[in-house]
């Protein structure tokens, strides 16, 4: 898998009372919006594309978090640019994953999808 490098660390902006947002650039189209609720049991809404997991980790550090402190991850839909990072994060943290009923069955063969994206 090709890892994409960028010159800067994405900004993390507070958009509401205790709600933060970062935009992680994607290698194939528009940036991913990832929402962070750092208080209590830190939570992510979406996780971004696997190749940009390091960028997410660096963005989290800006607000005193790291991936291993995340306790809950919600993914909004089963596109690889929204959940491929969470499929890796779940092996390194005890975070609970949340999605709408039936979404897991729609993911299919993750490795096959990644190979297809890399070829494209």
How does this structure look, described?
The chain has 120 residues and is α/β, with parallel strands linked by helices. It has one domain: Ribonuclease Z/Hydroxyacylglutathione hydrolase-like (Metallo-beta-lactamase, Chain A, 4-Layer Sandwich). Helix content is 24%, strand content 22%. The chain contains three helices and six strands. The chain has helices at residues 53-61, 80-89, 110-119, and strands at 12-16, 19-24, 32-37, 43-45, 72-74, 96-98. The protein has a six-stranded mixed beta sheet. The radius of gyration is 14 Å and the shape is globular. It starts with 11 loop residues before the first strand and ends with a helix. The relative contact order is 0.17. The model has no long low-confidence stretch (mean pLDDT 80).
SSE arrangement:
Layout: E1 12-16, E2 19-24, E3 32-37, E4 43-45, H1 53-61, E5 72-74, H2 80-89, E6 96-98, H3 110-119
Could you give a short description of this structure?
The chain has a single domain (12-119), classed as Ribonuclease Z/Hydroxyacylglutathione hydrolase-like (Metallo-beta-lactamase, Chain A, 4-Layer Sandwich), CATH 3.60.15.10. Helices cover 24% and strands 22% of the residues. The chain contains 3 helices and 6 strands.
Gross morphology: globular
Q: Which architecture does the CATH hierarchy give at level 2?
A: 4-Layer Sandwich
Q: Supply the number of helical segments.
A: 3
The level 1 CATH classification is Alpha Beta
The CATH superfamily is identified as Ribonuclease Z/Hydroxyacylglutathione hydrolase-like
Question: Helix proportion of residues, in percent?
Answer: 10-25%
Low-pLDDT sequence parts: none
Question: How does the helix and strand content classify structurally?
Answer: alpha/beta
Largest beta sheet: strand ordering: 1-2-3-4-5-6
Q: What are the secondary-structure elements, in order, as H or E?
A: EEEEHEHEH
Beta strand %: 15-25%
Could you tell me the radius of gyration in angstroms? 14 Å
N-to-C terminal Cα separation, in Å? 12 Å
- In CATH terms, what is the fold-level topology? Metallo-beta-lactamase, Chain A
């Amino acid at each position: 898998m090709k890892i994409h490098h960028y010159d800067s660390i994405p900004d993390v902006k507070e958009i509401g009372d205790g709600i933060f947002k970062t935009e992680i650039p994607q290698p194939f189209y528009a940036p991913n919006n990832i929402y962070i609720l750092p208080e209590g049991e830190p939570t992510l809404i979406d996780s971004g594309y696997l190749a940009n997991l390091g960028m997410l980790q660096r963005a989290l550090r800006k607000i005193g978090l790291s991936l291993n402190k995340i306790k809950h991850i919600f993914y909004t839909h089963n596109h690889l640019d929204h959940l491929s990072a969470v499929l890796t994060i779940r092996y390194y943290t005890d975070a609970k994953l949340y999605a709408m009923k039936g979404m897991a069955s729609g993911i299919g063969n993750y490795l096959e999808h990644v190979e297809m994206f890399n070829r494209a």
